[in-house]
């Protein structure tokens, strides 16, 4: 066998291994059941509180978020 054939066989084997691993992973993730969305908070945050929180995180924007939400 030439070096090129050996490389082709090894590459093909790696490709098949990755493909089979991917299919097994997808089957495992799919068998977990129905995807349920995350629960919505019981305490809704209003736009004013959101703008205050964002402005405290980014003080250099000088009320930019407050102006967006109002």
Number of helices: 3
What is the share of helical residues? 55-70%
Order of helices and strands: HHH
Query: Looking at the structure, what is the overall shape?
Result: elongated
Can you summarize the main beta sheet? none
β-sheet strand percentage: under 5%
Low-confidence stretches: none
Tell me the structural class.
mainly alpha
What's the overall average pLDDT, rounded?
76
Strand tally is 0
Rg, alpha carbons: 26 Å
Task: Give a brief rundown of this model.
Helix content is 64%, strand content 0%. It is mainly alpha-helical and 70 residues long. The longest helix has 28 residues, at 3-30.
Can you give a write-up of this model?
The chain has 70 residues and is mainly α. The chain contains 3 helices and no strands. It starts with a helix and ends with a helix.
Task: Quickly list its features.
mainly alpha; about 65% helix; 3 helices; about 70 residues
Give the SSE map.
Layout (H helix, E strand, L loop, with lengths): L2 H28 L16 H11 L6 H6 L1
């Amino acid at each position: 066998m030439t070096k090129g054939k050996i490389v082709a066989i090894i590459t093909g084997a790696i490709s098949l291994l990755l493909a089979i691993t991917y299919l097994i992973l997808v089957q495992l993730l799919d068998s977990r059941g129905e995807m349920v969305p995350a629960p919505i908070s019981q305490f809704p945050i209003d736009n004013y509180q959101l703008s205050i929180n964002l402005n405290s995180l980014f003080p250099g924007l000088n009320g930019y978020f407050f102006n967006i939400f109002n």
